[in-house]
Amino acid sequence: MVLQNSKDHTVACTHLDQPLLSVADVLDPPTLLYRMPSGQDIKLPFLNQKCRIRARVLDFWPPRLEDFARPVTEASDDGYHSGSQDHFLGSIQSPTWEWAFVLYVEDADKPPPGQIPARMSLVVSNKEAEYLLKLDATE
Asked: How many domains in the chain?
């Protein structure tokens, strides 16, 4: 994805080898068919692909920029807290922070007259946000 803000500052992202798609193309991907051993064709419910778009950010969530980063608690693979018992006895540890926000975007190019541009929401999580913003999440 390539994001462009209103001051024409461009943020280039990974996968530059991917073809540039419109937001409408991303929202309406091609259908993939899978042939079962019985010979029956079924439509696959999703398409796992990397996409590159050129978009303008219209809005974001959460509404306050300082809320784009949140504290997280270290957890084990099974979802339970993996800290020692000291954590439960009131030991104070500084939290780890991670990015988590949503960008509402549309195609950066102006659509033909009378046509409304396609828009979509992009969920930006920790590692992707670090690459995009060139910043680590902090309080």
From this structure: 1
